Amino acid sequence: MEGHRLRIGALAWSSSMLSSGSRDKTILQRDIRAQDDFVNKLAGHKSEVCGLKWSYDNRELASGGNDNRLFVWNQHSTQPVLKYCEHTAAVKAIAWSPHLHGLLASGGGTADRCIRFWNTTTNSHLSCMDTGSQVCNLVWSKNVNELVSTHGYSQNQIIVWRYPTMSKLATLTGHTYRVLYLAISPDGQTIVTGAGDETLRFWNVFPSPKSQAGGETDSLLGRIFMEVKLEHHPLEELKSDDSLGLMCIELAAFALACAMAG
Predict the structure, then answer these.
(1) What 3 state SS string does 142-200 have?
(2) Is 253 a member of any domain?
(3) pLDDT for residue 221 is more than 60
(4) What secondary structure letter does DSSP report for 255?
(5) So what's the pLDDT on residue 33?
(6) pLDDT bracket for residue 75 (50, 70, 90)
(7) Which residues pair with residue 187 across a beta bridge?
(8) What per-residue confidence (pLDDT) applies to 50?
(9) For 190-246, where are the E strands, in sequence order?
(10) Does residue 43 have a pLDDT over 70?
């Protein structure tokens, strides 16, 4: 697939549609069933597109950029329908709530450190939480109304939050460099994190729907149960020199999470 002039730093799936964000400041929409390189080009960011996420109903695409902007596009637009400029650093971390339509979370970089919540239905900024460190990733649990954030400078940790109070349920430590990648297993119970310390770590974080229905408490919350050492692929080195390598690490992490869930 061709179309971008510079490196691709973000990908997001919507059914058969693959969206890619690039340092060339554009987002390309590709229908993998078609022979065309891309079906739409979305322009609006003034710097590299570093975050992309489709909503659960596949109607809205959120994009974050190194221009400190968060944009929302509908499935047919070539210009952003919503623009949010409150972040003061790059917006890489983006997550849509699976529990409430139009609820969007975004996280800012080192100079920002905040997780912000937005209602895209009413075009309103709901709240802001200063986490104290760079927000690298966000993911929402589908089983409970909680979310996970991973962080870089200066904490290099993983935090589980209860929404909407944003009370901390767990702080997961062990990585010694910024936690660059995060994926969740299909059953919604396990997360896998990848960091610049050359490790992938698997954590039991969220309860199963069955235990929730029975009122059980998961005693394994936040407990790491596997660590994978990436001897020949230091993530911090790949971050600066090999974007493709980073994307491969992210995909490998997700595949491993799926395997563990199965």
Answers:
(1) CCCCEEEEEECCCCCCEEEEECCCCEEEEEECCCCCCEEEEEECCCCCEEEEEECCCEE
(2) yes
(3) no
(4) H
(5) 85
(6) confident
(7) none
(8) 97
(9) 190-195, 199-204, 223-229
(10) yes
The answer to the question of residue 192 being in a domain is: yes
pTM (predicted TM-score): 0.85
CATH number, domain of 218, equals 2.130.10.10
Residue-number span of the structural domain to which 198 is assigned = 131-262
State the DSSP code for 236.
Answer: H
pLDDT at 120 over 80: yes
Confidence band, pLDDT 50/70/90 cuts, at residue 171: very high
| Residue in the block written with tokens 């997360």 | 191
Bin 15: left if φ > 0, else alpha if -120 < ψ < 50, else beta: left
The amino acid at 224? I
Integer Cα distance of 1 and 35 in angstroms: 9
Cross-strand partners of 29 = 19, 40
**Do the domain assignments include residue 156?**
yes
pLDDT of residue 167: 97
Q: Which two tokens stand for residue 210?
A: 């069955």
Q: Is 221 exposed, middle or buried (0-12, 13-18, 19+ CB in 10 A)?
A: middle
CA distance 141 to 97: 8
Taken in order 154, 155, 157, 159, the sign of the CA dihedral is: negative
Q: How far apart (Å, rounded) are the C-alpha atoms in residues 55 and 218?
A: 28
Count H helices, E strands: the chain?
3, 20
Domain count, the chain: 1
Q: Which residue has the higher pLDDT, 33 or 112?
A: 112
Backbone torsions φ then ψ of 212, nearest 5 degrees: -65, -45
CA 42 – CA 28 distance, rounded (Å): 6
In a domain, 36, yes or no: no
Average pLDDT of the chain is 86
